[in-house]
What we know:
- It is built from five helices and no strands.
- By secondary structure, it is mostly helical.
- 16% of the residues are buried.
Amino acid sequence: MCNFVQIEEVRSRLHVDVNVGPRSLPAPPPIESFTDMCLHPSIVKDIEFHEYTRPTSIQAQAMPVALSGRDLLGCAETGSGKTAAFTIPMIQMVVIFNLIFVFQCQYAALIGSNTS
Ligand SMILES: Nc1ncnc2c1ncn2[C@@H]1O[C@H](COP(=O)(O)OP(=O)(O)OP(=O)(O)O)[C@@H](O)[C@H]1O
């Protein structure tokens, strides 16, 4: 994917809106294939086990942002795959950087969930 127009075309097709803060760099473009996300082999294996063939819209846009280490706030309808969109990058960071051992962190991730 090379230019802004093409990126916006893909976002439009995926029905994805992206907003970044005024002093922030542009968000990474969406990635429409798990294979192209450079995920750890153990994560790829699990994605295959669950028979996810391609990212949902929220995953295609949110995962590259989170994998780049940026903060993000993602909203999408229920059942659209938000859980994996946020947790796969989180697991990737833990697996790749081995956060708990490298930084002696007590916590590597914090998950907040609404109650219903
Ligand atoms: N890329 C994908 N391909 C196929 N199925 C998927 C994919 N991503 C998630 N799913 C499946 O879709 C279903 C809904 O996903 P999930 O519950 O994560 O959505 P959600 O947006 O987090 O929902 P909620 O708003 O209710 O929390 C789950 O069964 C999940 O395993």
